[in-house]
Amino acid sequence: MYYFYLLQSIKKSSEIYTESTNNLKYRFSEHNQGKVFSTKRHLPWKLIYYEAYLSEKDARMREQKFKRHGKGNQEMKKRLENSLGIFGESKDIKKGEGFTLIEFLIVFLIFAILIILILSGFRSFQSQTGLDKNIQSSTQLLRLARNYAISSKNNQPYGVHIENGQIVLFEGTTYTAASTSNQGINLTNGVAIDQINLNPTSSTTEIIFEKTTGTTANDGYIRLSQTNDPNKNQLIYIESTGQVDLLNGPVASASRQIDSRHIHVSITRLILTASEKIYLYFDNATTSQQTIDIATNLSGGQIDWSGTVSINGQDQQIRLHTHGLNDPNTIFCIHRDRRFNNKSLKINVESDNLINYAADGTLSNGLSIWAQPPQIQ
Question: Please, which residues have CB within 8 angstroms of residue 323's CB and are 6 or more apart in sequence?
Fold first, then answer.
C-alpha cells in the first residue's frame, strides 16, 4: 500500500506536514526520531490523517495536488476541524513547506551578499563622485587664478600653490601661507594629489600665471586619484599658454599660434628605466652625438634632461622630460626652439625612433611601432 498523510507538531500545533510514503509506520517513526530534516526542528509529531492507495502514482498525485491547490487545503481544514482544533491560530495547513535551518541560512546568505554588493557599489559611486567633485573644484581654482592674471587684478600676476591635500590661489609671484588674500580648497572624500609634474624642475609646486597674458612657465600636470584605488585618477594638464585641460595631454587651441618648439609624443611600450638610454642624432648623423642615461636623469619619478650639444661649432639646445612615466604609457615632452636649433634631429629610445625634426623644425612621425603621432603644443 501507499499512503498520503498529514502530521501535526505537538510542540507547535500550527505546524502541519504532508507527504506520501509506502511504509507509513516506518516513516512516522523516522519523523519522530529526527531522521527527516524537514520535520526535525518541531518534534514530536502526531499522525492526524492518512489516505491509502494501491498505486504509488496515485498517492504522489494526491500529495502534489494537495500542495498545489488551495481548494484542497480548505477542504482538509473542514474535514479535520475537530482533529486539528487549531484553526484559531493557523490560517493554512503548512503542507510540510516551513523554512528549515538550511533554507533560512541560504536566504540569509543571499540577503547578506546583496547588501554587500549594494554597499560596495554605493561606496564606489561615492568615491567616483568625490573624485569628480575635487577635479571640478581644482580646475575651477586654476582657471580663476589665470583669469585674475589676465585681467591684471590688483595689477599683479597670480599663482596656485599645490600640496598633497590642498590647492591655494595666491596673489603675486611668491606664495605666503598666512596671506589673507589666499583662496584655497582642501581635497575631500578620500582624494589626494599623488603626482605633481611641473616645469622647470620636479620639485616645482607652484604655477605662476603672467599678468595680462595668462601664460605660465610652469606647464605640466597634476594628478588627482582616489586614495583607496590609485588606478582611478585624472590628470589636470596646464599648458604653457595657461590653458587648463582635463586630458592626458593638451589639445591645442585653434585661436593661438602653434609650432614644433614644444611637442608631446606618446610611446606605448614599457620604458626600462634602469637600463635603457635615449639617443639624439643631429644633422643626419648615423652615430648618436648625445646619449641620455635614463636611470641618472630621473627626478620625481619622471625623466628630466636638458642640455646644449655642439654640432660643427653650433650649439643646439634641447629639453626632454616625461609626463606619466609608464602610467601605463609614457608622454615625452620635447622642447626644441628654432631660435636655438638649426640642425635636424632624430630622437630614439634605444632602437625605437620616437620623433624626427628637419632643420627648419618640420616634424615627421617616429618610425617605431610604439611611437604615436606628435601633438604640437
Answer: 197, 220, 221, 235, 248, 249, 264, 302, 330, 331, 333
